[in-house]
Amino acid sequence: MIVLEFKLKGSSQQYRVIDEMIRTAQFVRNKALRYWIDNQGVKLSDLYKQCAIMAKEFEWAGKLNSMARQASAERAIFAIQRFFANCKGKKPGKKGYPQFKKHTRSVEYKTSGWALSADKRCLSFTDGFAAGTFRLVGSRDLHFYAPKEIKRVRVIHRADGYYAQFCINVERTEEVVPTGKAIGIDVGLNHFYTDSAGETVPSPRHLRKSEKALKRLQKRTSRKKKGSRNRKKAINKLGRKHLKVSRQRKDFAVKTALCVVKSSDFVAYENLQIKNMVKNHKLAKSISDAAWSQFSQWLEYFGKVYGKTVVAVAPGYTSQDCSSCGNRVQKSLSVRTHVCSCGTVLDRDHNAALNILAKGLKQAGIILNTAGHAEINAWGQTDLYSLMVTSTGKSTG
Question: How confident is the model at residue 300 (pLDDT cuts 50, 70, 90)?
């Protein structure tokens, strides 16, 4: 499944109709959740029936395409299933009990209620709302995909306009060039990450760089009279700036993860508990700005696309243990150099990256005869690739 996104170009009246569609989808989702709360144990098929009942009971709800109403009900059931999965898995902290939505920004259609033009450059909505035809603006081309391959169309309202996402049921495959390299990655705040070869990538700090402009826009917003048109304009400018920071962060995470996966056959990274880490109010902003979770998600995704092995390892004691002898050297977060009695002197993050790589190789079934940076570097590229093939029984590249 791949997702292609385009910006929708239409009139202001058409945009107001889309807002009505989104509010209706939110209403259906909340009503489905209310039905589940009142009738515990209902199934998705029961919520589908309630969608049909709602269409008859509320005339404006019947304007929304039947499959779009079902997709809204699915959002409710997915939230319920996630809650039960968190409870069953004994997830620490809040389990995410389903909540009613107040500020939904999207509506989702399945295979009906919309139509593409012959040149696939315009999108029309054919349900009761009659939003009309929108021009699709984007760098991707829908001509490569048949209409039957498009399983969902999601319309999203963002600060800078309205967008359409096409969920296409095709497998993304990329040509794989084996490199014979294995890499361990330790993410941090001084550097975005340090790998097991000692190379570092600087942290972009997008939020920190835009903080002054965000504060200025926030101050302008707070000075405007509530409910006025000028306040709405100020809120939109503030939202656009936040959206730009979010896009910068995502762009960096995607490009960095792609570079890591394409340059290595084996990638090991720390499975950090970000939700727990951001409870430290002194580091929460910097951790959130680094977007480690987003980076790890794209590592996993590109690992599947390119057929590379990507392993998440437990973060315990990766900074404290010596990568050469295995002895535990206790040190506070302010100590940035690892010094061991065996004579090893390394940057703290470099030492952690070596430990992460060793843990990842062991977790993947590649057993090291001896611990240490020297043995890892002693493998040639061809030997490492052959060892990975032998251990897993198949090529990872």
Answer: very high
What is the amino acid identity at position 160?
D
Q: What pLDDT score does 237 carry?
A: 95
The closest of 166, 162, 165 to 14, measured between CA atoms, is 162
Query: Which pair of structure tokens corresponds to residue 364?
Result: 């993947």
Q: How far apart are CA 288 and CA 28, in angstroms?
A: 33
- Bridge partners (DSSP) of residue 311 are 268
What's the pTM value of the predicted model, to 2 decimals? 0.81
Return all residues near 329 (Cβ < 8 A) that are at least 6 apart. Answer: 320, 321, 322, 338, 339, 340
At position 188, the amino acid (one-letter code) is G
- In b/e form, how buried is each residue of 261-288, taking b as 16+ CB within 10 angstroms? beebbbbbbbebeeeeeeeeeeeeeebe
Reference 373, options 324, 339, 313; nearest CA is 324
Q: Is 335 helix (H, G, I), strand (E, B) or coil?
A: coil
Contact yes or no for 184/358 (Cβ under 8 A): yes
**d(C-alpha 382, C-alpha 74), whole Å:** 49
Q: Would you say residue 373 has pLDDT above 60?
A: no
CA distance linking residue 396 with residue 217, whole number of Å: 49
Helix, strand, or coil (residue 54): helix
C-alpha–C-alpha distance, residues 42 and 168, integer Å: 30
Calculate helix-pair angle for 229-263, 206-223, nearest 10 degrees.
170
